[in-house]
Amino acid sequence: MSDELLALRERVETPLADVVLRADDLVVRFPIKQAGRGLRSHTAHLTAVSHVSFAVSRGESLGIVGESGCGKSTLAAALIGLQDLTSGTVSLDGRPVGRTRSREDSRRVQMVFQDPMSSLNPRMTVGQTIEEVLVFHRRVPRSRVKARSLELLALVELPPSVLTRYPGSLSGGQRQRVGIVRALAADPEVLVLDEAVAALDVSVQASVLGLLQRLKAELGLTMVFISHDLSVVRNICDRVAVMYLGEIVEEATSDAVFTAPQHPYTAALLRAAPELHHLRRPGSNALTGEPPSPIDPPSGCRFHPRCPIARDECRTTVPPRVVSADGDVVCLFPLGRAPEDVLLAG
Ligand SMILES: Nc1ncnc2c1ncn2[C@@H]1O[C@H](COP(=O)(O)OP(=O)(O)OP(=O)(O)O)[C@@H](O)[C@H]1O
Q1: Does the CB atom of residue 215 touch ligand 1 within 6 A?
Q2: Dist CA 35 CA 13 (whole Å)
Q3: Which of the four, 36, 158, 254, 301, has the lowest number of CB atoms within 10 Å?
Q4: Is the pLDDT at 85 greater than 60, yes or no?
Q5: pLDDT mean over 206-228
Q6: GO MF annotations for this entry (predicted)?
Q7: Where do the domains of the chain lie?
C-alpha cells in the first residue's frame, strides 16, 4: 500500500473520540423578498451556508476563510446557536445540540465578535461584564467572583484597574481583550472567533494574535477562527477550511493549504494576499470579478465562472468532495493532482 493510501486510511480510521465540535451538513437559507412584475413580489431563497461539514478536535484551531459574503458569519452564528439552521446538525462531544440550546450547551461554545464596542454593554464596567458571565454560568461561588475576574484579566495581560473601567474608555486592543475574557469567563470548550482582529490596527492585531496563540498553547483552547485575512489564519490555525459561496471547497492542514493549495479558488485567494507573496505559486491566476449571487448560484461548480482553469464539465457537473491524505477538495480538476491520484471521491 502506498504511503499516501496509508496516511489516508489513518485519517479516515482515526477515532473521533477527540472531536469536540462537529458540523454535519449544515444549511442556512434566508427567505428574500424580490420585486416581481407590477406591485407583486415573490419570495426567493438565499443559501448562505450550503451543506457544510467539518470536525474540530480538542486543542485544535480550525480557520475558516473566504471572501466577504461567502457565509462565514452566518456559519459562526449557527455554531453558537444564534442562527437557526435550515437543516443539519451541530454536535458537541458527539451529542447533537438542539435548536434551543440549554444554558450548559451555550456555555460550552463561546464567541468573540469583531467589534467589541457593539458586543459589550457600554453601561457596564468590565468587572460587571465578567461577573455577569461568571454568575450566569455558575462558574465560581459569589465570594470568588472578584478573584476569578482578576485572574481572567491577568490571563489576557490586562491590569486589575481595568475592572472598574467602561468599554468606551478602553483602547480597541484592550476592548478586544475584554471580549476574549468575557468568552473565557464561561469556561468554554470551543471559542468561535469571528473576524476577531479585523478591526484592530496592524500592531495591535499582532499582539492580540500573540495572546491567542499563548492561550491556545497554555489552555489547550479549541478554536474556530473565522477571517477573510489569510495571513492571520496562517499564523494561528492548524487546519484551514476555505469557503466559497456558502460551501467549503477545500479543507486541509494550514501548511498544505498555504504551500500546495488544491482548489483554484484557494490558489487565487493566496495570490490576492500581498502579505503571502512568498507563497505564490507560479502560474496560478489572481482572483477576478465578484462572487455571483448566492440566490442563484452558477450550475455545476459554483466557482466555474471565475475559475482560470475551468473546463466544459465544470459548467455542468457538481464536483464531488475528493478526500486524500493531503486534505479534501471539491473540484473536478484539483491543482497538482492527476486524475489517477484521486483516492476517494464521493
Ligand atoms: N439575515 C439575513 N437575511 C438575508 N440574507 C442574509 C442574512 N444574513 C446574511 N445574509 C446573506 O448571506 C450571505 C452570507 O453572509 P455572511 O455575512 O454570512 O458572509 P460573510 O462571509 O461573513 O461576509 P462578511 O465578511 O462581509 O460579513 C450574504 O449574501 C448575505 O447578504
Answers
A1: no
A2: 51
A3: 36
A4: yes
A5: 92
A6: ATP binding; ATP hydrolysis activity
A7: 2-29+45-237, 258-345
The kind and range of the H/E element at 258 are helix 254-259
Assess whether the C-beta atom of 174 lies below 6 angstroms from ligand 1.
Answer: no
Q: How far apart are CA 78 and CA 49, in angstroms?
A: 9
Among 74, 229, 296, which residue has the most ligand 1 atoms within 8 Å of its CB, making it the best to mutate? 74
C-alpha distances (whole Å) from 155 to each of 47, 148, 214 are: 39, 10, 10
Which candidate, 60, 85, 63, 67, places its Cα nearest to that of 75?
A: 85
d(CA 181, CA 174): 10
SS3 64: strand
Against a cut of 0.80, is the pTM above it? yes
Q: What is the DSSP string of 232-292?
A: HHHHH-SEEEEEETTEEEEEEEHHHHHHS--SHHHHHHHHH-GGGGGGPPTTPPPP-SPPP
49 lines ligand 1 (CB under 6 A): no
| ipTM of this complex prediction, to 2 decimal places | 0.97
pLDDT of 238-287, one tens digit each? Answer: 999 999 999 999 999 999 999 999 999 999 998 887 666 655 555 556 67
Mean pLDDT over residues 155-167, rounded? Answer: 96
Cα 85 versus chain centre, distance: 16
pLDDT tens per residue, range 119-135: 899 999 999 999 999 99
Nearest-CA residue for atom 10 of ligand 1: 48
Which amino acid makes up residue 106? S
DSSP for 306-337 reads G-TT--HHHHHSPPPEEEETTEEEE-SS-TT-
Return the CATH number of the domain spanning residue range 2-29+45-237.
Answer: 3.40.50.300
What are residue 89's DSSP bridge partners?
A: 24
